[in-house]
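Subject: sequence -> structure tokens, single chain

Hey, anyone have a minute? Need the predicted structure for the following. Not urgent.
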Amino acid sequence: MFITSHRIRKPVTYILGISYQLDESYNSPEGVKECLDFSKQSALTLDTFTVELTIFISNLKQKEKKLNVNEF
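Reply:
Had a minute. Here:
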């Protein structure tokens, strides 16, 4: 559970931090671009993790079905 929490929480806190930074750097195009790049990377990290988590849960369900079938 720690790994799941960490892999979700970290990108979320980055995105929150970026949003606060954007408030302060709205007059600087370079600062805004940097914030957007960090935000994009955090979103991609979350996306990758959700795909991995979906595959993991799907595999667990498949194993559960096999166990249930083998009980009979």
